[in-house]
Amino acid sequence: MITRLEDKELKRKSRRELLKLAPIVALGAFAFPKVSNRLIEEGVRFSDWAAGEMFRSQHLAQTFSNSEVVPFAKFPYNFYDVVDPGVNLEKWTLTVEGDVRHPGEYTLTQIQALPKIVQNTRHICVEGWDVIGSFGGARISDFLKLIGANVGPNNRARFLEVTCVDDYYESIDMASALHPQSLFCYEMYGQPLDRGHGAPLRLQMPTKLGYKQAKYLDTIRITNVLTSGKTGYWEDQGYSWFGGL
Amino acid sequence: MADEPSGDGRREEIKKEGIRDDVAGSEPASSAGPEVCEAVVAKLEMVADESAPKEPVPVEARAETTAKAEEAELVRAAYEHPLAIRITHWVNAISLFVMITSGLRIFRAFPSFGPKIPEKILLDIPKSLTLGGWLGGALQWHFTFMWFFAASGIFYLLFQIFSGHYRTMLFMPRDISGVWPMARHYFLFGPKPPAMGQYNPLQKLAYTSTVGLGALSLLTGMVMYKPTQFSWLAFLFGGFHLTRIWHFAAMCGFLAFIPGHLIMVALHGWANFFSMFSGWKREPEYQE
Q1: What is the DSSP letter of B200?
Q2: Which residue of A60, A244, B223, B269 is 20 to 30 Å from A47, comparing CA positions?
Q3: Are residues B133 and B45 in the same domain?
Q4: Residue B71 sits in the same domain as residue B159
C-alpha cells in the first residue's frame, strides 16, 4: 500500500519503527565471549530441562531385527583413555552405595541371576554416527529393586551415579535409569562383553547418547544430589548432561 | 524545502526515468529519492497548473496553489514490513548464522553420512568457518540458538497466517508464469518485468522456499535431537540416518539462498535494505 506523506513525517515514522527493534540488540551480548559462555551454558541447561520434560518413561526406543544389526567388527570401540583398562575380571564386584537398603559388593552372578533382556537397538554417538547393535543384560530397574534403592513412586532418589575402573564417571536421571530398555549390559552379540566394550559390566540405554553408556563399571550410587563438578566426564567439559534421545 | 516545481530539464529527465525503469538496480539512490518523488508529484500537478489562467490570480486560487505546492513535498512510501516480520527476520538471521556455523563444527566431528567403520570423510570443513571451537562448544551454541530459531520461526508463521500478511510473499500457482521472466532478467539480462507488488514472483518463490527450509531444518533437528521421543517424525523422514541427510540438505538450501539474497539486497540500494529495519520503504518500485 503506497502512501504519500511528507518527508519529515516519513523520517519520523521510520525512526520510531527503527527504535522498536532495539530489543534485538540484546542478542549482541552473545558477541562477547565472557557473557556468551554463561549464556550458552544457560541455553544448554534449559535444553536439558526441556529434554527431561520431553522424556516419556515408558516410550520404547526402536528395536531391530537380527538382520539389521551391524556385524560385531563394525561396532566401534569408543573409550576416553585406554580401550582396556585391565579390569581384574576374576575379582570384580560392583560396589553399591547411597540411598539403598542393601549397600555393599555385588557379583556379576547376582546381576546375571536377574531376568535377562536381549535387545537390538541403535547406539547413537554425539558425533553423529550410529550403529545398531545387539545387547544383553539385566534391567537397571530390576537391579535397583534388588539392592533396595529408593526408587518408589514417592520421594524417590533422583540420580544414579556411576564410576568406572578407568576413572570415567557418569550420572543418569532416575526416570531414564528406570526405563524398561535401560540395561546393566554384560553381553553383546550373544557373547560376554569383551574388554574393549566394557567388560564385565556397562550401561546400555537406547534412550541416551553413547557418552552416557559408561563402561567397566566399578561403583554405583543412588543419590539426590549430584557431586558438583563431577556429573560426567564429558559433561564437565561441556556436553549436555541429559544426553537423551 | 523551497524546491518550487519549475518545469526545467531535470523534471523531464526524471519523467523519463520513471518510464524507462529497466536496468537492474536502477532504483533512485536514497538521496535522490525525495526529490524525484516531489518532482513526479509536481509533474502531475502541472497539468492543473498549465490550465490555470495567466492573468492575476484570485485570492482563493492563490490559496489553492499554496496547497498544491505543499502536496508537491510529499514522498511516496510503503510500510512493507510489520514489526513482527522485522524482529523475526533479524532474530532468524542471527540464529541461522549461529546454527550454520556451529552445525558445520558438529558435522566436522563425523563428516560422513556412511557408517563409522569404515569412515569415509565427505568434506573437510575449515575450522575457521565454524563456531564453538570443538564439538561440545558447537553443540552448546546449537542447543542455545535452536530455541531462538524455533521460537522466531513459529511466531513468524503464526503472525503471517493470522495477520494475512503472508499474501505479500506466499508463492502461489498464479506466480509460476512470472518466475522465468524474472530469472531471465536477473541472470540473462532480459527485460525487467513491471513491478506488480512488494515482491516479484521469483522473490516469492525464494522466500516461500526458505520458510519450507526452516520448517525442514527444525523438524529434522528435532528428530536428531530426540529420535526416540519423536519416533513418528523420524519414521516420516525415513529414519535417523536419512534425517541427518535432510538436515544437512536444508542447510545447503540456506547456503544457496543467503548469497543470492545478500547480492540482491546490495544491488537494490539503501532504501530497500533500510526498510527491513524501519518497516518503511521510500519510493517503492511498484505503483499500488
Answers
A1: -
A2: A60
A3: no
A4: no
Exposed, middle or buried by CB within 10 Å (0-12, 13-18, 19+), for B113?
Answer: middle
Partners of residue A51 in chain B, C-beta under 8 Å: 225-226
Whether B59 and B116 map to the same domain: the answer is: no
- The residue of B108, B134, B278, B285 whose CB has the most chain A CBs within 10 angstroms, and thus the best one to mutate to test that interface, is B278
Show the domain range for B134. Answer: 81-282
For residues B236 and B270, what is the distance between their CA atoms, to the nearest angstrom? 44
Q: Which of B87, B90, B284 sits opposite A2 (nearest CB)?
A: B284
Taking contacts as CB-CB distances below 8 angstroms, the residues of chain B near A24 are 87, 90-91, 94
Query: Touching check for A244 and chain B: CB below 8 Å?
Result: yes
Q: Is some CB atom of chain B closer than 8 A to the CB atom of A57?
A: no
Measure the CA–CA gap between A235 and A170, rounded to whole angstroms. Answer: 8
Mutate to test the interface with B, among A17, A75, A77 (most CBs of B within 10 A): A17
- Asked if the Cβ–Cβ distance from B76 to A207 is below 8 Å, we say no
Minimal C-alpha gap between A183 and chain B (Å): 17
- Judged by CB atoms closer than 8 Å, whether chains meet at B278 and A7 is answered as no
Q: pLDDT tens digits for B53-99?
A: 455 555 555 555 555 555 567 888 888 889 999 999 999 999 999 99
Judge contact between A93 and A106, C-beta under 8 A.
yes
- Complex ipTM value: 0.90
B94 closest CA partner among B159, B141, B137, B136: B141
Per-residue pLDDT tens over the stretch B222-260: 999 999 999 999 999 998 989 999 999 999 999 999 999
* End-of-domain residue from the set B75, B91, B109: B75
Residues B97 and B36 in one domain: no
The domains located in chain A, with CATH, are 62-237 (3.90.420.10)
- Grid-cell match 540456506, residue found: B254
* Model pLDDT for residues B258-273, shown as the tens digit of each residue: 999 999 899 888 888 8
Tell whether B111 and B175 lie within a shared domain: yes
- pLDDT less than 50: residues of chain A: none
Does B48 share its domain with B115? no
Is residue B86 domain-shared with residue B202, that is, in the same domain? yes
B287 occurs within a structural domain:
no
